[in-house]
Amino acid sequence: MATADIRLSIAHQTRFALRLASALASPSPSAAATNAAFSPLSLHVALSLLAAGAGGATRDQLAATLGGSDSTSAAGGLHALSEQVVQVVLADGSGAGGPRVAFADGVFVDASLKLKLAFQEVAVAKYKAETQSVDFQKKAAEAAGQVNSWVEKITTGLIKELLPPGSVDHTTRLVLGNALYFKGAWTKKFDASRTKDSDFHLLDGSPVQAPFMSSTDKQYIASYNDLKVLKLPYLQGGDKRQFSMYILLPEAKDGIWSLAEKLSSEPEFLEKHIPMQKVSVGQFKVPKFKISFGFEASKLLKGLGLQLPFSPEADLSELVDSSEGQNLSVSSIFHKSFVEVNEEGTEAAAASAVTVVLRSLDMPMTPVDFVADHPFLFLIREDMTGVVLFVGHVTNESNLVPKNSEDL
To answer: Which residues belong to any copy of the Serpin domain (predicted)?
Structure first.
């Protein structure tokens, strides 16, 4: 796959990420009260793997939602992109002093079925997936436990129960899963002795106490009329990859919903607002935060136009070598993520599982203030390629580790 093709594919993947982030950051009472984080990359790869087992209009709709085109070659493009992402972007860099990255795909198939050879070849060659035979029909709870243990191992224990109780039963035939773990140290760590409690203003304006990190070092900040963007780079390893966290801070205390909408509707918005140089800072305060968040993603994905895989018209006949393959559809897509930001850097993890069932600007010279004391969006991406690993929003510093948000 040529570099230009990869860049276009990544642009489509980023658009998918930001559309999902916007849908997740809707101005509902539950969103306002809950910090959220998810890995669009994890979901994108899981759905791309599903596309390898889909046929006809179902495959085309997956390709259109994920890659911006519904042509037959688009599905092949998804697999080529996933291969690049899995083998290059998500290679572990910790041996050379860079971020520790772990990523894995898994295909768990019922013991009564055999995967189609073509699907298995794509899953193993392009996605580096491991395939496991499990007994969904007679030992569904045990099979779910195997999936959950696999996820917990990849995410070093941060995500313990991706598949909730009862989510897998005797009608389940396959679970496509992936898990992602990222741990990066800031290029310049914050001095923990300077971390102090201060007011964080909620969407309604009321203040709560939160721990803020501060620094007098120059920072990558871009300032606009209604927005400031901070880039916090992570230590690089022995290659050219550069992972960074971006904090997008709207001027308005309740500006994150319109900002999320702008990010989603203007694909170039993020690229145009990335800070390019360091500036002297005046007041500089960034809160520490820890987010654990889970949701069932099928409703959001249907809202983005992905309907067929969940419907009686689903064509997932390329998954398994059996007449049962004609009667498969997706029942649920579970996603969980964890992100912690502190003085040292960031630890983050995410996992997705698709369950398939049988149906019945100008830089100012004066010091710039950056005080993230009200709701903001954040994302973690690899800057060389533009691949977005995590997206989230912080709206409520008094509720640092909320429960799963199942009502989205």
So the answer is: 18-397
